[in-house]
Amino acid sequence: MRFALKLLLVLLVASLGLFFGLFFGLNYPEVVRSGWSLTRCTVLASAIDSRYCCEKTCGNSCASAPLGAPQCAAQISSINSGFSPSACAANATACPTGPGSICDGGYHCCGNCCSTCQSCSSTCSGTPSTCSQSCKSYSCNCRCCSSTINWGCQLSCPVCYAVNVDVTYQTRGPGSRAQNATYRQDFKKDLGAAQVRCTTTPLSVRALTGGQGFFDGHITNSTSFCYYDPKDGSQVRFDVKMTPWKWAITAVFGALPLAATLCALAYLFLVVPAVFAVRRRRAGYGSARGAGAGDGNGNGDGAQDGEGKAQEGAGETVPPPYSARRDSARGDADEAGSPSGVP
């Protein structure tokens, strides 16, 4: 009982921490934004912002990078912060030279060597008892037996996109005023979602985007509904919908473990004591009934004995009716046989 209680308390603390961590990390900002004020925003200017978002691809090989190859992390940081796709498009000398080259990915364990262990269990049944043993093998005592300290990786630098929209809107409520703000939405490598509306966009790309992207929907001088933070007018968004996958993660990994732990605690502290109380009450009621039945039988026998003894005593002190009549007849006969006044 104590072990179960300690285990449930540990699970309760862990599930509470996990639930509140997920809720305040993923969901609470969306809950706060859902209370923002609705207004209409007029787009003053909008622009597409392109940037390099380099990444390394190392594959499954254990090949080492050439001697003197640059570190992948340093190369990625240098290109992402120091080069621009638009500048590269205007001047070839402003393009980074790293993409496509081999960089040093650092230490990497290429393979593990493990021992083979067995776990056996016995099962007995029947009379006389007959036992059988079953064993299963599993990997154990694993260690890295093949590694490299300069993993050869290939550097790639795709272009990522974000849309910057400068808007103006009118605040609501007392003291209404005009407020300017800038909204930025990142689309990673999804050019179709960003939808660059310009003459340099290839027709094939515009056809693949399937119509209207974010940039097309927020061109200069267009007006649309938007939401702003009443506490900070510089914060504005065009959509404050909840993100389903964030709530799903919180429900599965936060709410369900917490609910299961609370149900187990409720069973331990409410259901189990109630069951024991009902059983004790039933046992006490049965004992009381048995004791009451025994006392009733004893009192009845005593009453019957008392009545018998009373009748016996009455028989000893009170003469029966026929004895009284006999004595009276004898007295009358004696009086008739003796003359009056003669002794």
Automatic annotation (TrEMBL):
Transmembrane domains' residue ranges: 247-272
Composition bias, Basic and acidic residues: 324-333
Keyword Transmembrane among record annotations: yes
Highest taxon listed in the record's lineage: Eukaryota
Keyword field: Membrane, Transmembrane, Transmembrane helix
Skewed-composition ranges (Gly residues): 287-305
Region (Disordered): 286-343
Protein name in UniProt: Uncharacterized protein
Species per Swiss-Prot/TrEMBL record: Mycena belliarum
